[in-house]
Design the sequence.
C-alpha cells in the first residue's frame, strides 16, 4: 500500500505554446478544428437539444460528428435535423 507517494511530471522539452494551431489538412481540405467531434453520451443533460445542437455546430464548422450509441436523440430525429450532405456520404 502506498501511503506517501508523490508524482512529479516534468517536461523535458520546453515548447512555445503562446500560439497554438489545432488545424490540419486531410485530402487537400483544411480544417480549423480536428476532423471530427467524438461521440459523448447523454448530451441533453448538459442543456439544449443535445446531440442535435452539437451536430448543427459541427456542420456549420465544416467538420464531422458521430452520434453516440447512448444518445439522448434518436437516429431518426438526428437524420431529420442535420443538414443534407453530398450523395457520396452514407445516409443514416
Sequence:
Amino acid at each position: 500500500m502506498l501511503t506517501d507517494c508523490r508524482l512529479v511530471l516534468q517536461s523535458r522539452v520546453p515548447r512555445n505554446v503562446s500560439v497554438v494551431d489545432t488545424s490540419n489538412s486531410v485530402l487537400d481540405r483544411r480544417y480549423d478544428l480536428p476532423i471530427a467531434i467524438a461521440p459523448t453520451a447523454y448530451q441533453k443533460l448538459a442543456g439544449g437539444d443535445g446531440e442535435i445542437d452539437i451536430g448543427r455546430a459541427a456542420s456549420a464548422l465544416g467538420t464531422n460528428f458521430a452520434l453516440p450509441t447512448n444518445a439522448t436523440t434518436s437516429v431518426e430525429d438526428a437524420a431529420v435535423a442535420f443538414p443534407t450532405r453530398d450523395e457520396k456520404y452514407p445516409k443514416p
The radius of gyration is 19 Å. Strands lie at 24-26, 29-31, 36-37, 64-65. Residues 24-81 form one domain.
